[in-house]
Amino acid sequence: MISETTSLSIVLPVYNEEENIEPLTTQIVQCLEQLKNPTEIIFIDDGSTDNSVEQMKAIQVKFPTRTFRIVQLDRNYGLSTAMAAGFKAARGDVIVTLDADLQNDPADIPKLLEQLPEYDAALGWRVDRKDTLIKKISSKIANFFRKKVLDDPIHDTGCSLKAYKATYIKRVKMFKGMHRFLGVLIAMEGGKITEVPVSHHPRKYGKSKYGFWNRLISPFLDLLAVRWMKKRAIRYEAKEVS
Ligand code: UDP
Ligand code: MG
Q1: How many domains, in total, are found in the chain?
Q2: All residues at 6 or more sequence positions from 78 whose CB lies less than 8 Å from its CB, including other chains
């Protein structure tokens, strides 16, 4: 378990989640009450067109003793960009990410933190996914290809609920689509990773932004790019002898 002095950054990527902001942050604040760590919560607004940003500002007023930061992207770029902006903005020693739609459960955050510092990243594994049938099927297909092409033992790569040592995740060069491969990318940076079973809930408010097609074609091309990176990664040991 991380020590009480380890600072935390909780990164929340948001694209049109106005109804989820208030209940989500209330749950996060409740969960933080059991932790003594200095913590900041960073909303990354990925170009929302609804009232998400107003909701974020209301949260800053509701919890004046907590540090809430709002980073606003000038338009919608997609989850990888939102995550990258979050990793860059984060000032904590440990960065926790989770979806802002309440599908991930903030109550699982301490379970992930328990795995640090022994591991450099703890990845949420949604053992009982609460998604639509079409999404479950497309995930199964994607996982099948990912495991074959990458020889990757990770069970659930798409779960946003993850905790990283900041020094490791900040080393990963982000590209569009890479939010689906952060576990393997951290491992490529020499990080020790572990998976932690977490709960998953159906989406109650708002709409999913990722369907069948936008999760199949370009993620497959991204997979080939990650395979290339994995094969061509530079790894060596050397010492200066004189
Ligand atoms: N999201 C984002 N930018 C986007 C699409 C999604 O920041 O362009 C956020 C979204 O608000 C949510 C998370 O990424 O917090 C996951 O999105 P979503 O729930 O739609 O994906 P799903 O769970 O359906 O795969
Ligand atoms: Mg979701």
Answers
A1: 1
A2: 46, 176
User: What would the pLDDT profile of 188-240 be if each residue is shown by its tens digit?
Assistant: 999 999 999 999 999 999 998 877 777 778 888 999 999 999 999 988 899 99
CATH of the domain at 103: 3.90.550.10
Residue 242 is assigned to a structural domain of this protein: no
Give the atom of ligand 1 at the shortest distance from the alpha carbon of 16: 11
Q: Are 194 and 124 in contact (CB under 8 A)?
A: no
Is 0.85 surpassed by the pTM of this model? yes
CA distance 184 to 190: 10
Task: Let me know if residue 30 belongs to a domain.
Answer: yes
Is residue 47 included in any domain, yes or no? yes
Task: Tell me which residue range forms the domain holding 211.
Answer: 8-232
Q: Which residues line ligand 1 (CB under 6 A)?
A: 13-15, 17, 46, 76, 78-79, 82, 99-101, 103, 208-210
In angstroms, how far is CA 234 from the centroid of its own chain?
26
Stated as kind and residue range, the H or E segment containing 94 is: strand 94-97
**99 in a structural domain:** yes
Mind listing the pLDDT tens digit for each residue in 53-99? 999 999 999 999 999 999 999 999 999 999 999 999 999 999 999 99
Q: Is 136 exposed, middle or buried (0-12, 13-18, 19+ CB in 10 A)?
A: exposed
Atom of ligand 1 nearest to the CA of 158: 25
